[in-house]
Inverse folding.
């Protein structure tokens, strides 16, 4: 089954919309947030807990799985779904972003990127065709084309070259695609240059993918520029296809992008911050390591009904964090992912009842970051 | 409510028995195994998962909680049950074992042991009265008297002195006990000297505690000596009181001790081994790190219905372990604790149907270690 996208409601005052993305392994209600499961596990949670929180889709990183344990090994074991015990939708990235951010000695040519593994220094080449083949071996529902993500800041010539290469790679990725199920998404680049963003949108969308991602943001450009690029790019992507903003962001970032018509999100913030002792709460960020919580009997967030807030005090969370207990990462991750799941639920609800503009105003007024 | 113990079945061929220990926070079916939750958490599992596995009692370590976050702090937060989100039975040790094994610069006198914290080197004194007071602040159901646990090997004079001191401390602990609920257990020492074991049993049991523990084993003496001491000591403890073998052991160790009339067990083996990649299975120990499991699609134990074996392959467990993923400790700990819970269930079942002798023979024949 190929991916199908249906818009179910539109906000009258903004570009926000609700919809459903139907894939082989389930249907996502959008706007949706996808937890990051880098090495075939969302760190610190059982797959069943993700389902209980209402998650229908997890992202996993092709770069990491390609290196360890290897995509052929995962294919032999029945694919990534079976391997990680997750029977709902899986999205994999192309591996390109990690090649550019984690590996060393990379050499970018039109044919492929050659790089050294950040684990053992071994030499590898990633071409658009290879990125598709690896993801098809993994068997993910949503797969991403290989793109060239430039750092920030970058000069115009460099970004222009990346846009050209990204379009060529998108075409080759599409031609290399063999798997009917699910679909391969195109990715738009263009750095922080408005005309190059527009050019990338036109070139990539001409190739007719079942969904499009906004790449090349959240690379250090700051909130203002990021939002400018999202506001510029998202509405130009085809309205009848799902739009995915890669690697973004905070609850407020998501709110902004939804208002510009974005449907899908992923970000390491809720899970990584949890492991660093930082909780998202309805009253703003809370750092459990602070001494003021040493004897605090209250739950992390009084408005939260997650399993962590139902049973444990701030004092206990602080104790576990200071003792470096495994349970600390477990409890805090469940809370943060629960918070994000409820946040997306409230966004969808507000759009469906035609109340999104009010919801944005109230949220920003109450200090959501 | 004070502790009450009822024997519900006796094996005709051995000293094995089933029973119930009724405490303020619930009732244990014995023989029972208690997972170790050192710092107010059984590492890697949610309290709810322990309940789902059938555990009714968790052990926590007084030494660790006294140092961090402090017993007064836990008392102020409503006690250890509320602090760690565990509403069933809690057993705390006296702190003595860790003072002798973890701390430095200890000085043992009749009045108290003085020692330096293994965390920050701060100086502390632990007396029998203090050990009782700390445990009463924690609010545990079953509390242990302070005893002197000697290393192995130890000379006769040293052990004789420890027996004398242990008896004196037991008497003082009993006198210091203020809390009606639950109960304070006595502990028998005596090293590897048969006559000193017998003397310690006589002296400590004369003080009439609601339960008795066999201490001073699992200190490096080896299986043969350990079993000799258990076989000597357990049957001499009052039959109408629960008998607790501290810090033991493997499934086979437990089987042996049950056959000599022991009712309660705790041990770090299932949880610590899990974190080191070692699983208990019906076919013997399994080390997930081995290369032979790299593409093995089978569950860790084909005869196991735990959440780990129901969903995940050996290949996935190996991958998580090698990647040092948090989920590795989580999945392996759940499996091992599930294995121990089922093991105790089978032991109780065999005793109740009068089939324990056969069960022991079959188990040892099938390679249980």
């Amino acid at each position: 089954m190929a991916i199908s996208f249906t818009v179910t409601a539109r906000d009258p005052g903004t570009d926000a919309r609700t919809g459903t993305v139907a894939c082989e392994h389930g249907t996502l209600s959008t706007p949706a947030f996808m937890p990051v499961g880098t090495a075939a596990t969302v760190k610190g949670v059982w797959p069943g807990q993700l389902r209980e929180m209402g998650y229908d889709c997890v992202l996993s990183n092709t770069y990491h799985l390609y290196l360890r344990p290897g995509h052929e090994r995962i294919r032999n074991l029945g694919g990534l779904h079976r391997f990680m015990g997750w029977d709902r939708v899986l999205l994999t990235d192309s591996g390109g972003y990690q090649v550019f951010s984690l590996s060393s000695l990379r050499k970018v040519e039109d044919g492929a990127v050659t790089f050294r593994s950040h684990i053992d220094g071994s030499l590898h080449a990633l071409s658009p065709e290879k990125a598709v083949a690896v993801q098809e071996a993994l068997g993910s529902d949503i797969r991403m084309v290989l793109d060239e993500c430039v750092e920030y800041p970058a000069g115009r010539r460099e970004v222009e070259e990346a846009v050209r290469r990204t379009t060529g790679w998108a075409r080759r990725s599409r031609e290399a695609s063999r798997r009917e199920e699910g679909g391969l998404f195109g990715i738009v680049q263009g750095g922080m240059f408005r005309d190059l963003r527009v050019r990338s949108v036109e070139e990539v969308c001409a190739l007719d993918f079942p969904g499009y991602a906004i790449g090349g943001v959240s690379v250090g450009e700051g909130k203002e520029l990021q939002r400018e690029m999202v506001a510029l790019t998202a509405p130009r992507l085809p309205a009848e296809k799902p739009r995915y903003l890669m690697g973004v962001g905070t609850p407020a970032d998501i709110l902004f992008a939804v208002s510009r018509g974005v449907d899908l999100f992923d970000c390491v913030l809720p899970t990584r911050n949890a492991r660093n002792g930082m909780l998202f709460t309805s009253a703003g960020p809370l750092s459990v390591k602070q001494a003021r919580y040493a004897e605090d009997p209250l739950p992390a967030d009084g408005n939260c009904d997650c399993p962590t807030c139902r049973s444990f005090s701030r004092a206990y969370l602080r104790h576990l964090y200071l003792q470096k207990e495994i349970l600390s990462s477990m409890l805090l991750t469940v809370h943060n992912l629960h918070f994000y799941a409820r946040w997306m639920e409230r966004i969808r609800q507000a759009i469906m009842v035609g109340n999104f503009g009010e919801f944005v105003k109230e949220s920003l007024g109450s200090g959501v970051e």
